[in-house]
UniProtKB/TrEMBL annotation:
The lineage of its organism: Eukaryota, Metazoa, Chordata, Craniata, Vertebrata. The keyword Transferase does not apply. It comes from the Eukaryota. This is TMED5 protein. PANTHER family: TRANSMEMBRANE EMP24 DOMAIN-CONTAINING PROTEIN (PTHR22811). Residues 1-23 form the signal peptide. Belongs to the EMP24/GP25L family. One of its GO terms (cellular component) is endoplasmic reticulum membrane.
Length: 226
């Protein structure tokens, strides 16, 4: 899965303000990220948002024992908006205000197993589309003689854009599901091979013991007396 260029994990730093010099997500409306969360660690990220916008976040644990993780989402004021305890996936949407929203993935409850986590951010009403529409409106004057007005063209373009964005989102989620299922299958394959070898070893040992016991029953003990 692709890695966004400007995303920087913040570790276990404070959740109210981004650390000095830390990078943020690019202004893209759709960003996805995959990272490895070591055992006993907590990783936090932040996303600047505007007022009356929408932040949708979906995450999945792709690999690791239990396929679970703790998830926290905090507002710019430090208020806990979402808390998921030891879940394998989740989808959350919040209406935002101006400020930096923090979300953290917590694997401190695990002392051995690391987790591979995928998450995707979808940002709506960030102001860019509205500016594009204002730019289009400057060219609407004088189009009464056209069979199709520029407003209709703009509406069609926005509809196509929305459907393409939804298609990309669905494909990204399907790749994440495929990665998680593949990891589960590989883990099951390793377990089957391990226990098959254990069963084979037990059968060899039992066979050897049985042969030894049968031979001991038919030994001529009189030879040992002489």
């Amino acid at each position: 899965l692709p890695w966004p260029r400007l995303l920087v994990p913040l570790g276990c730093f404070a959740l109210l303000l981004p650390p000095p010099g830390a990078a943020e997500f690019s202004p893209s409306l759709d960003s996805d990220f995959t990272f490895t969360l070591p055992a006993g660690r907590k990783e936090c990220f932040y996303q600047p948002m505007r007022k009356e916008a929408s932040l949708e976040l979906e995450y999945q644990v792709l690999d690791g024992a239990g396929l679970d993780v703790d998830f926290h989402l905090l507002s710019p004021k430090g208020e806990t908006l979402v808390f998921d305890e030891r879940k394998s996936d989740g989808v959350h949407t919040v209406e935002t205000e101006d400020g930096d929203y923090m979300f953290c993935f917590d694997n401190t409850f695990s002392t051995i197993s690391e987790k591979v986590i995928f998450f995707e951010l979808i940002l709506d009403n960030m102001g860019e589309d509205g500016q594009d529409q204002e730019d289009w409106k400057k060219y609407v004057t004088g189009t009464d003689l056209l069979d199709m007005k520029l407003e209709d063209i703009l509406e069609s373009i926005n509809s196509v854009k929305a459907r393409l964005s939804k298609s990309v989102q669905i494909q990204t989620l399907l790749r994440a599901f495929e990665a998680r299922d593949r990891n589960i299958q590989e883990s099951n394959f390793d377990r089957v091979n391990f226990w098959s070898m254990v069963n084979l070893g037990v059968m060899v040992v039992v066979s050897a013991v049985q042969v030894y016991m049968l031979k001991s029953l038919f030994e001529d003990k009189r030879k040992s007396r002489t």
